[in-house]
Write a structure and sequence with these properties.
The radius of gyration is 26 Å and the shape is globular. The chain has 4 domains: about 5-70, Phenylalanyl-tRNA Synthetase, Chain B, domain 1; about 80-275, Phenylalanyl-trna Synthetase, Chain B, domain 3 (Phenylalanyl-tRNA Synthetase, Chain B, domain 3, 3-Layer(bba) Sandwich); about 285-350, Phenylalanyl-tRNA Synthetase, Chain B, domain 1 (2-Layer Sandwich), CATH 3.30.56; about 365-560, Bira Bifunctional Protein, Domain 2 (BirA Bifunctional Protein, domain 2), CATH 3.30.930. The protein contains 16 helices and 28 strands. The protein is α+β, with helices and mostly antiparallel strands. About 30% of the residues lie in helices and about 30% in strands.
């Protein structure tokens, strides 16, 4: 869970009233957070956010905003969402960015002076959004600049690696884009996100001065913010338009809460236009009867409207339904259950009367879980390291990067991000993604995951079926079919499960170096060497061999029978 630090005095200023540490520790549940400590020497508070679906809370401004609305009932107002960008407040996106890092947003913040509190807060929210929500800058990256040095409008365009040069942040000498990736620490860390493209993204002003090379590094001339700056320009680039706009909204609201005047920017794409910040409001309907069923008690409609308003919602009543509009800095309200949770938080969980269960049962582990534990023990015994990842993923990782044609998958309705838009039907792409982010770790690499996957099943009640899979990869200069087969053979030997291999063809694997895993006359998995083109898609430079097994009930039962 994200953990933030902020100064006690700064939090009180943003909250607009005195806030003792004792009271703070008691009321942080309103912001889905917990008090984790206080440093008397520095005046810093450590706060852990106990939920990851509200990035607007990952800052002192976000915590203070939620507490102001929940406790002081002071509604935040952000008029810039209805403002119109001026003539030069434009970002022009070149058509060559479409397949590289296509989306960008930004705004101008004036009437503000950067002090230590603001600078510390900016650095922290920038880091939290890009690393946690932005998945280490893959989904979104943020640049903050000294706006007094920038000539508007701006252009966002792709350049060849040696076509343009500038001084990256922390350096006074100019480097071209390829040199930055080789020599700058941030280039070495985040270069993987652009190295596979022939053109690299660059943000320039009207005088062709470079603001940033996203998602890698800002310019040392325009992208360096220091105490005393009186105007800022914030840009956010990414691979998801909705995620970019949401983070623009959060950054703009945070600076507005500190007294800044926000000027929105118009982003002009080759075939469309989008204003940023932009109200991404979600409208969700809540039935009183459903809320009462979930919470187990009768609730007055006026009370529902009041407590939801304390969480930032605008609420109106239509017959027996409540129409709830989310604030512009939130994008986590996908279902009426989300509103019920916010109502319970706002009213306070301690206001509900607990009920003891009427029936008592003794729990036990299911056969599939016991079997999975055995697999984990065997895999770690063979020197593999286990990873546990999200069940949600993106279609591009399942199909485009795996060279596989798009197939049926279970998709998420009202998806917040393309990165988490479908339920994974396989574990192998997840392991390749992990491998792509650990290329500096000493080789050989041996990793695995045992976890749930979901496949479409039209005849099932939910039209989908949840299975347990096991996938493993080995990566080093000599990784090959024989090596990964030796691990599969050892695994099946110790499980006492008979199997055989039959040659197969799969675009993710090298032809002639892939096989179906057959057990009890049923196909239960695949094994082979990963196709070089797939490795290139992931930015992996070493050979990789892998296998994946489906651990359904028949395989579990057969293991016990032998």
């Amino acid at each position: 869970m994200p953990t933030i630090t902020c100064y006690h005095r700064d939090l009180e200023i943003l909250y607009t009233e005195k806030l003792s540490l004792q009271k703070l520790s008691e009321v942080l549940e309103k912001a889905k957070a917990e008090f984790k400590g206080y440093d008397e020497k520095t005046g810093e508070i450590k706060i852990e956010i106990v939920d990851t679906n509200r990035p607007d809370l990952w800052s002192a401004e976000g915590i203070a905003r939620q507490l102001r609305e929940s406790l002081l009932h002071k509604k935040s107002s952000y008029p810039f969402f209805s403002a119109t960008p001026s003539g030069k407040d434009i970002i022009i996106v070149d058509k060559n960015m479409a397949d590289i890092r296509p989306y960008i947003g930004g705004f101008f913040a004036s009437n503000i002076e950067v002090d230590e509190f603001l600078l510390t807060g900016l650095i922290q929210i920038q880091e939290k959004l890009t690393e946690n929500y932005g998945r280490s800058r893959e989904l979104i990256a943020i640049g903050v600049h000294d706006a007094s040095k920038i000539e508007f409008p701006l252009s966002y365009k792709g350049f060849s690696p040696k076509e343009i040069s500038f001084s990256p942040l922390g350096f006074t000498e100019e480097m071209d884009l390829s040199e930055i990736l080789e020599r700058h620490p941030k280039g070495q860390e985040y270069g993987r996100l652009v190295k596979n493209f022939s053109l690299y993204p660059v943000l320039q002003d009207a005088a062709n001065k470079v603001l940033s090379f996203p998602p890698v590094i800002n310019s040392n001339d325009l992208g360096r913010v220091v105490v005393g700056n009186k105007a800022l320009f914030v840009d956010i680039t990414g691979t998801s338009l909705e995620s970019v706009i949401l983070c623009v909204n959060i950054m703009a609201c945070n600076l507005s809460d500190r007294g800044a005047h926000i000027r929105p920017f118009m982003v002009e794409y080759p075939s469309s236009r989008h204003m940023t910040p932009q109200n991404l409001k979600q409208i969700v309907t809540l039935e009183q009867e459903y809320l009462e069923k979930i919470l187990g008690e009768k609730v007055d409609p006026a009370s529902i409207m009041e407590y939801l308003s304390f969480m930032g919602f605008s609420v109106s009543k239509e017959e027996n339904k409540l129409i709830c509009e989310s604030p512009p800095y939130r994008r986590d309200c996908l279902h009426s259950v989300d509103l019920i949770e916010d109502f319970a938080i706002s009213r306070g969980y301690n206001t509900f009367s607990p009920e003891m269960p009427e029936k008592y049962t003794v729990g036990s582990m299911s056969p599939i879980i016991e079997f999975a534990d055995t697999l984990r023990m065997l895999m770690t015994g063979m020197g593999f390291q286990e990873f546990i990842t999200y069940i949600l993923t993106g279609k591009d990782k399942l199909f485009d990067k795996m060279n596989r044609p798009e197939g049926d998958v279970v998709e998420v309705a009202n998806v917040m991000s393309d990165t988490y838009s479908v339920l994974r039907p396989t574990l192998l792409p997840v392991l390749l993604e992990i491998e792509s982010k650990n290329l500096r770790v000493e080789f050989p690499h041996k990793i695995f995951e045992e976890g749930e996957v979901v496949i479409p099943a039209p005849k099932e009640i939910l039209r989908s079926k949840t299975l347990h899979n096991l996938s493993a990869i080995v990566s080093h200069s000599g990784a090959n079919f024989s090596e990964i087969h030796s691990y599969l053979h050892s695994l099946m030997f110790y499980l006492n499960i008979p199997y055989k291999l039959e040659e197969t063809s799969d675009p993710a694997f090298i032809d002639g170096r892939a096989g179906k895993i057959i057990s009890f006359n049923r196909e239960v998995g695949i094994i082979g060497e990963i196709y070089p083109g797939v490795l290139e898609n992931w930015g992996i430079m070493m050979p990789v061999a892998a296998f994946e097994l489906t651990l359904d009930y028949n395989l579990v039962r057969s293991e016990k029978d032998f």
